[in-house]
What does this fold into?
Amino acid sequence: EVQLVESGGGLVQPGGSLRLSCAASGFTFSSYSMNWVRQAPGKGLEWVSYISSSSSTIYYADSVKGRFTISRDNAKNSLYLQMNSLRAEDTAVYYCASALFRGVIISPFDYWGQGTLVTVSS
Amino acid sequence: DIQMTQSPSSLSASVGDRVTITCRASQGISNYLAWYQQKPGKVPKLLIYAASTLQSGVPSRFSGSGSGTDFTLTISSLQPEDVATYYCQKYNSAPPLTFGGGTKVEIK
It folds into this structure.
């Protein structure tokens, strides 16, 4: 059974930092690209960042570029999102999501974690 | 960047009704279009990819069509368990992998 489990969310002050983790199991993690998607309270889905299976290709949404860093450790079956210079508008549930197709550069998102809530407030 | 516009933003229909949701891309995206369903308090679920291919396990009352800039998600006979918000997403290129604004479907 495929499982994606996020952790690392919490309350942080504006300007602060947080590191999210996503632990994957039940599939060959190293073969699939991964994404972070967020959802502000009561709002829609917003794609945040993408990383290819080998980490050779990385993309960010303009809203987080220069502040967030995506990475992965295929040996640990783990995905990360380092979030710096956090703003109130970054408050959201953050989901990790795996690609539907292995090896394909861009793919829809098949499996999603349960999400971790990040609240940026003083 | 390509914008994805969904309409309507919400709808209310009766059980058994045929429901259609539209997603329009600001530029052509061929058939690189996915639909997701998010039930209240739940995680998004992939319904359809490549504009019209049903993901495994998705009921056949769901269907998708379109290519280029105009796409539709159709529920042929609305069921109570279909109450959810539906999102389209383009994946022809990145960044960004843009989602539409969502369509909330309720039972009348």
Q: What stands out?
A: The radius of gyration of chain B is 13 Å. The mean pLDDT of chain B is 97. The longest strand of chain B covers residues 19-25.
